Amino acid sequence: MKTKLIFLGLLFFSFLTIQAQCSPTVTSPRLGLKYANTILFCNVEDEILSTQAYDTYQWYKQQWTWQTPNTNPWEPIAGATSQQLTVNGNDQLNYFKVIVTQGDCTAESPAVFADGFVYGLPAMMSTYTPGTYQEVGMGEVNVCNGASVKFDDIFPAVYGTHTWFKCVPSSNPPTAGDPCIIPGATGDTYVATASGEYGFYACTEYCPDQCEILDPFAFVKLHFGNWDFCENLATGETKVKDNNLKIYPNPAAQFLYIGKESDKAYPEVTIIDMSGKVVLQKNNHSYQQAIDVNHLVPGTYIIVSKDSKGNVYRNKLIKK
């Protein structure tokens, strides 16, 4: 009886060993370095996928899609029947897995994703101060003197050191001494206060040798001047349009009331200082609600208010 129990025990542990050995996983040098279960290619280059030693192998791939769940079929890769599989950047946006056999056991590995430029290509966001700009064409804007425009790389986590331009550079990559380069502007944000055509060049943090320039068509051309629509922010003299909105008290020390009863509500109220900076912004403001301006530095401000009909009012505020 004891001999039989020992035999059954050995058989049981042998079965567990076979089962444990039939649990394939996929490994590769860059798997998971940036994102879990993902191989991130810097460019079109080779990457070797491997699994543990088994009797047989068959590698499969599935095309990526936005659809959830992914309904694309898993397709066997012709000739991919060894322990390793070589993929390259041309195989980006595909999932890979391997099905193996070991004795009577058949099992498949978890899938891994082959991705490439998972970060977006360079893209730029422009932020303007309400009442200080006017679009005059695709990527071309008139801006009031004394105001500013903030440019941001939309994917700051992707790119490292930046090179910012005030005109389209003559070469890609830009060469040292190019007059379009803005000296010292290396962050993922740049604030423009002068006329120019703005964009940037940057290298990815994960792939330091892989650098990209913003498409010249995406550069933004700014023209700073004293345009008709401007409040002259440099001098504090205001060319007021539609200035029939009641603001009281003015000058104000702490509480300010804006609006008229007939309008009831104002979806947007913005207070701008003389440098063009937004210092206070309220949404869905009602005419009878007090706005606390106690924290504002004494001086002159511009209030831009928009009513529910889309009418825009611009008023000067004196903060005591």
Model description:
By secondary structure, this protein is mainly beta. It has three domains: 26-116, Immunoglobulin-like, CATH 2.60.40; 124-231, Immunoglobulins (Immunoglobulin-like, Sandwich), CATH 2.60.40; 247-319, Macroglobulin (MG2) domain (Immunoglobulin-like, Sandwich), CATH 2.60.40.1930. 6% of the residues lie in helices and 41% in strands. It is built from one helix and 24 strands. The strands form six sheets. Strands 1, 3, 4, 6, 7 and 8 form a six-stranded mixed beta sheet that branches. Strands 10, 11, 13, 15, 16 and 17 form a six-stranded mixed beta sheet that branches. Strands 21-20-23-24 form a four-stranded antiparallel beta sheet, with no helix packed on it.
Question: Can you give keywords for this protein?
Answer:
320 residues, Immunoglobulin-like, 6-stranded mixed beta sheet, 1 helix, mainly beta, elongated
Provide the residue-averaged pLDDT: 82
CATH H-level homologous superfamily name of the largest domain? Immunoglobulins
- CATH architectural type of the largest domain: Sandwich
Biggest beta sheet summary? 6 strands, mixed
Give the topology string: H per helix, E per strand. HEEEEEEEEEEEEEEEEEEEEEEEE
Specify the overall morphology: elongated
InterPro entries: Secre_tail
Protein name: T9SS C-terminal target domain-containing protein
Organism: Chryseobacterium pennipullorum
Keywords: Signal
